[in-house]
User: Fold this.
Amino acid sequence: MIRSFLPTDLLAILLQDGSLSDMARTWDGMCRTRSRLLTLSGLLVLSLNPRDRRRTWVWANGFGFRGLASVRKRCMDTSWEIDHLILREQDTACCSSLLERLSLTGGENDVNRIFLRLPSDSCLIAAADEAGFSCYMREYLCWLQNNRQPASAPAANSDSIPFPRRKRPVDDYRVFELYEKCLPVSVRRVTGMTFSEWQANKERGMKAEWVFDGEEGLAGWLGIRSSGRVGQFEVMADSDERLRRVVDYGLMFLGNCQQLFCLASETNSALVQVLEQRGFSRVGMYAALAKEPMAKQKALCLMPASA
Assistant:
């Protein structure tokens, strides 16, 4: 039976034999270790918030716990992402049922898109496909053990990219224009073809954003976050040469971090090459999936014909 999450479900999860895994990955969760204790602490936070409990579903029968799925909004209420998918990896039937249930709720709440990221070799991808999710991109997780001293700012020159500045709200549309140049149409059809769609579907978790002015629009963009000694960044640039410079600024801003992570699309060979030239290694591959839930049908109000 699939139902909403209850605080008592924490005990059922705790009583499991350790065979459950949290398979979903969000952008800001890629560099966190998915320990059982950390997962339970995250669910405890969910259990204390009635709003979050309504966005969390479990398959359970008494203390017979089978799986859990939860969603959070991205940048707007019309866009959701699955941040927890806890089950036995081979339990594809449970996965499909949970994804179908949360999709139904998404449609009832006028959600336009639901996102899910899974390891690319997971058998749950087929289960997600059965529930209506489609893979629109595959990504490498690139990692660097940073043993170097914090770098100084790369020197600017006339053929490269100017010094960065902090992004301001007025820059949002210019970042969108750069996004249109950098991402293929096959990806933008899912992540946003219009400015409003892109704003709603952006990944969460950026702590700081920097932009690089060009002669016409922005030449580059850099988003970073750090937690303790772990840093993560995302980049866009309008040329391969400028891409190298933006990456170098990312390494500089996160120079005090011992471990660095960056997600790079499988099709973005230029970024993968730049990262590997800087010492990064590919340590994982993920499938980015999405679904458009069916919108709730509004009941027709029929007026009697006048005599």
In short: The chain has ten helices and 13 strands. The mean pLDDT is 88. The longest helix spans residues 92-108.
